[in-house]
Amino acid sequence: MAYETILFDKKDGVATITLNRPNQLNAFTAKMHEELRAALGEIAKDGEIRAVLLTGSGRGFCAGQDLQEVKPSDVGAGRDLAQRLDRNYNRLIRAVRGLEKPVLAAVNGVAAGAGANLALACDIALAARSASFIQAFARIGLVPDSGGSYTLPRKIGQARAAALFMLGDSVSAEQAEAWGMIWKCVDDAALATEAQSMAARLAAAPTKSLGLIKRLLNASATNTLDQQLDLERDLQRIAGGSEDYREGVTAFREKRKPAFKGR
Ligand code: LHQ
What we know:
By secondary structure, the protein is of the alpha/beta class. 48% of the residues lie in helices and 16% in strands. The chain has a six-stranded mixed sheet, sandwiched between helices. A four-stranded mixed sheet has the order 4-6-8-9. A hairpin with a 2-residue loop joins strand 1 and strand 2. The longest helix is centred in the N-terminal third of the chain and has 22 residues, at 77-98. The structure holds ligand LHQ.
């Protein structure tokens, strides 16, 4: 499928999605959502793809909803926003969290509004030192969406999340790392290489186990310890039946590096 608003590339087990509206700092349009759904659907079905790398072209990662596309003056604009969330943003976040493959964000520049929260929904986020994260919603009279009100307090705590949501202050990549909002901040010039090498590592990992880890993490936010212990038992049973588990143990005994196949 030919895409207009994203670039999509598959190589050596890694699917790279690049948000590609650089003149608008890769702001989301309905078309971009449609294309992201198609790309993520393809990734879910393709057994050869074992890791996803998400980044932006130009100087931004993603500036959230394209504000030229929404019409605040319309009667019933609030309803329009709710429909956009149902149709686009909520589906996108569910697709990223529900995909049983690792999704790595390489935040190359500013990530604002839903763009920031898309990065927070990814399993691992790397950011360029010059990148920043802005919970821009209250700046324009909205509330956080795209899962931000769920992910951000869990990553950085209520006190910081509340201030960021209400004040809409920009957070530098270094601060984001220090607060645990992201995994790591790297020099701008190193971001692409570091992200590619981490994506390659993830693509060589036991994909089934990583997918099940994601299921555990998704559930741990709301489960009790008892429920989580039961879930760990159930998923360990599945992981223990995988070819990669057998390979991992065999490789350990044979004192060699495992060659995981992702099944
Ligand atoms: C943009 C945008 C943009 C269009 C920069 N749209 N063009 C969900 C459901 C439905 C509706 C509502 O929203 C949501 C979720 C959300 O995401 S709400 C949050 C929406 N996003 C924002 O409020 C962020 C708006 N952008 C900004 O505040 C700034 O652009 C940031 C702080 C991101 C970057 O600032 P600068 O580095 O100073 O860049 P800039 O403002 O000069 O932007 C560069 C160009 O990109 C500029 O176009 P121009 O033609 O003047 O060069 C901007 O108009 C355009 N752009 N964001 N969201």
